[in-house]
Fold:
Amino acid sequence: MVLPDNLKNIITEYFDPNKIVDIKTINQGHINSTYLVELPECTYILQKINDFVFNNPYGVMHNIETITKYIKKKVIYLGKDPNRSLLNIVLSSSDQSIVFMDDAYWRCFQYIKNATTYDIVPSKEVFEEVGRAVGEFQTLLCHFPIQILDETIKHFHDTPFRYAHFLETIRRNKYHRAEECQEEIQFFQKNEGIYDLISNKLKNNIIPYRVNHNDTKINNVMIDNKTQKALCLIDLDTVMKGTLLYDYGDALRLGASTAREDEVDLSKVAIDLELFEYFTRGFLKEVKSIITPNEIKGLYEGYLLMTIEVAMRFLDDFIGGDKYFKTEYEKHNLDRCRNQIKLVEEIMYHKEQLLQIIVNVLKELEYPDEYCVA
Ligand code: GN1
Ligand code: MG
Structure:
């Protein structure tokens, strides 16, 4: 086949160009550029790392290499297929996990066949599986030496830091966009009292730092087409230290929502309480041996803060000129923000119900009594 111009050079770093059968662009994910490269026997994922977002691509790959090596040993020990139970890095012909070519950073992974990543939850059973996979990621890595991971995006889920950045973007208002989103800005100002709920607990050692995925949205979980079981988490760029409250909350954010992240008809944006329950069950089943009572008390806060934080990040990016998230039209980030604000309102409105569901699941899973207070 004729190779697209932008891939001509990088392809030869990995494969014999004459053997390539097909190349497709994958349009999932707001950050990197992803291509599916088909060879007669195997298929690969070739990715250009967004180095505006990840200004230390070597650190990103260092984290991915070390944690996948660690997970691989564990899944083999557990008798699972390492080709399907984790993301496997493909080294370049000169044995590198990252290649700098034509002014860009590239890396390659094995493609997991007969598996799907969903943008919208297809069934409650699958979402329970997603919860299980997010929890499993935590348990697999619970003894990993956290200090050897690079902090590849500083303050990634540090919500007070994100808020300070947001206020600065509004103050600059470089593109004169703040005028049209006064209502949204006020929403974030009105809620400023909650942003340090989790960061304070981390600071005061009330909850522990753990190895975190940090971007557990539903389309970052691979589901086996045949069994409908979750295989593994992908998109490991943001693996860094954090709290499991982030991974729990971020997965629920989109997964338990009744609408896509950029749905503009806000009457469609709500929480599916049943999906919330199924995910919580899958997650809590898996982390039962590691989660602490204080972490359980923070689960709701994880859901709330991950949602309000990303809402704020979308607006920050809109006002700051759409430099971070990929957008498809001019006000895409503003629409995403409005959608996520609606979700935050729903999360606040349903607080007691959500807490009750968590308690019910804890009891059903026979957690000790002192754990059953969310
Ligand atoms: C980005 O890369 P992707 O699309 O899985 C973002 C997440 C946001 C998410 C919002 C590195 O995730 O933090 O929650 O968009 N990733 C990064 O959909 O910023
Ligand atoms: Mg992704």
